[in-house]
What we know:
mainly alpha; 17 helices; 1% strand
Amino acid sequence: MESSVVDSFAATTMSLTTPQRRDFMRHWLRSLAGIVKYLSRQERPFGVPGRVEADRFSPRSSRRARRAPDKDETWSGASPYFSLPASDLLCLCLRESAMADPRTGPDVLRELLLCAVKLELGEMEVLQHIVNVLTNADACRHQTSSEQVELLNSVSLAVKRCKLPRPPLDRVLCVLPRATLSVRENLQVLSSIHRLQHTHMTDVVATVSRKAAQQTNEYSVKDVIYGLEVAALLPGCNEVFVAGVLLRAGALAPHMSAKHLGAVCKYVALLNPSRRQNTLSYSCGKELRALLPLLVERTEQLLGHFRLHEARHVLRCFREHKVRHSLIFSRLTPIAVDD
């Protein structure tokens, strides 16, 4: 099917003018980015023999270094959702759309960056060009706080998914602590900094999380999971914010599904005194102690609905916090050890 798509793309673009061709390329990238969540990844685990299709991908652990058998150069832009020829064409569209016309506006570049992130196109030169244009002083002056949050989120995803080297983001990060952000935007900033593994942004984290502490009562279950993730893994989070997230988790516990409960337990397990440099387990000990019985009660109600990873997260959480419950452990342990 991919070969017919590539052929039809070539046939269509031949009859278009240059501006029309670029519009068509952007539309194509947009359309594929919109359906990528329905596509299966074409990667195979290390050392797994398979069909000829699997030979397109390097047996090395990183899929970002794919070397053609008859060439010396390594190409790192391949998407895990498409064959190499299709990925090559997608990267060509990305390059043409982003770099061919110096008048390409920031709105188009933001859209292209999001498409690249969703398709996981690791075309470094193009990604770096887009990020450099969007983070220069003039562009940052004209961006709203919501646009800066969206940009930070897209760049952090590009670093994680596309292996983009972490770019300098001081102009964006220095403005956001002073901005008035929504509930989801505050969480996006914290999640983005965590994704970037930025070790010198504890002041920004403290300021943003202190503001977010006033919004925890509005959190959904998904927001609580994101909040617990950054609380457990991102240094510098405000204690009042973490306490608020824990209290909100307790309030929402009776409505959590097995999947949600497993995700919550995954990060609550990390908020335990045995972890080195973990002070939150002491400063938020009251909230943790109040949350654990509610998690136990909901786990009892959901017995029979847990899958392997969810069961493992729940058991680990209760072990780390020394919760003893013979029924839960007897029911979930066989699931958790099932290979």
